[in-house]
Amino acid sequence: MKPKMPAPSTEIEDILEKSINNGRLSPKEGLTLFSATDLTVLGMAADEVCKKKHPENYRTYIIDRNINYTNICTSGCKFCAFYKDAKHSDGYIIPRSSLFKKIEETLALGGKQILMQGGLHPSLKLDFYVDLLYSIKTRHNVHIHAFSPPEIVHFSKLNGIAVRNVIQKLKAAGLDSIPGGGAEILVDRCRRLLSPNKCTAREWLDVMREAHTLGMRTTATMMFGHIETQEERIEHLEKIRKFQDETGGFTAFIAWTFQPKNTQLDTSFIGSYDYLKTMAIARLYLDNFPNIQASWVTQGAKIAQLSLKFGANDMGSTMIEENVVRAAGVSYRMDKDEIEALINDLGYAARQRDLYYQML
Questions:
Q1: Mean pLDDT, range 136-153, rounded to an integer
Q2: What is the largest CA-CA distance in the chain?
Q3: Residue 67, φ and ψ in degrees, nearest 5
Q4: Fewer Cβ neighbours under 10 Å: the N or C end of the chain?
């Protein structure tokens, strides 16, 4: 594919003005913004749109913990450095005692939620997950944000149960909301190359549709900077924007960059410039998304702070524990005090929230 020539500045300015004035950008206009060479102008426009949606004098974060209940997975994603085969000596299923201890530590630190995800285990049936949820809820008053769409689709196929019924059973057992993990890029060309054993783009969206129909809220994500084109980034944003028009069930959009170390993909690492540009374009394009999160887990503290000037209104989670990105050789750490300091340094008050962006 030939390099895209930069669009004239007046064309970029017209598109930015349209977005600032509440106009909906077309896929062509979204793609044109990638040709902008002035990152500051993009950021200023995204910040203005963000301030219109969030005129309040605070920015938010959440205290939670990412608990991986198993690292055994049959998906074989080329971008993942975390998973293990079923027979691998380092494969595990988390003992309940360890799980409860992690939750207790989270609650002690002021957390109200756990994010629980795992590999596509080949033999754990739905009863295991139902019992897991029940066991947590009988012991702890905690919001369970768990089981991304690829996991739900895996449960459905492994047990021969419709996706809707799987979600109903999990919800009855204590599942409160579903994370947007496993979206990567919602274009099947990418998915066939990256993770051929994982759910399709349509299956990912179908899980979210069933969840929203059942009254559950979810998040939407995008992992970029691997094999996708800029056109495919826009296609991803277009799909989730159309879907949000239909259901209104997404609470937030979270994007992060692919981390290539220890993975099967031989791609170069993309830096903060591309991250901030994509974040700004996402804020301008996703006019029906109330919230956009920064990704300090992949970008570090300072770029995450800068994201709050490039369209993000939320610093995401304290991530008391994070294993998947760490397996790819990236291990940024931040606690509550540091996140609050980064928000305060920009002149905002720092407020702790829950999944629904209600202040705590």
A1: 96
A2: 61
A3: -105, 120
A4: N
Q: Taking 90 as the threshold, does the pLDDT of residue 214 lie above it?
A: yes
Backbone phi, then psi, for 252, in 5-degree steps? Answer: -165, 165
Residues 6 or more apart in contact with residue 128 via CB below 8 angstroms: none
DSSP 3-state helix, strand, coil percentages of the chain (rounded to 5)? 45, 15, 40
Distance CA(91)–CA(83), nearest Å, equals 8
- The secondary structure element, H or E, covering residue 90 is none
pLDDT surpasses 70 at 27: yes
Ordered by where they begin, the domains of the chain are 26-352 (3.20.20.70)
- Token representation of residue 255: 């994007």
Measure the CA–CA gap between 307 and 313, rounded to whole angstroms.
8
Q: Are the CB atoms for 316 and 295 separated by under 8 Å? A: yes
DSSP H helical segments within the chain, as ranges?
9-20, 27-33, 39-53, 96-108, 126-139, 149-159, 163-173, 188-194, 201-213, 230-247, 272-285, 296-299, 301-307, 324-327, 336-345
Task: Name the 3-class secondary structure at 359.
Answer: strand
Per residue in 261-302, pLDDT (tens digit) is 444 545 555 678 999 999 999 999 999 999 999 988 778 889
- pLDDT tens, position by position, 29-79: 999 999 999 999 999 999 999 999 999 999 999 998 889 888 777 655 655
Sheet of 314-317: strands edge to edge?
Answer: 64-68, 113-117, 143-146, 177-178, 217-224, 250-257, 292-293, 314-317, 58-62, 349-352
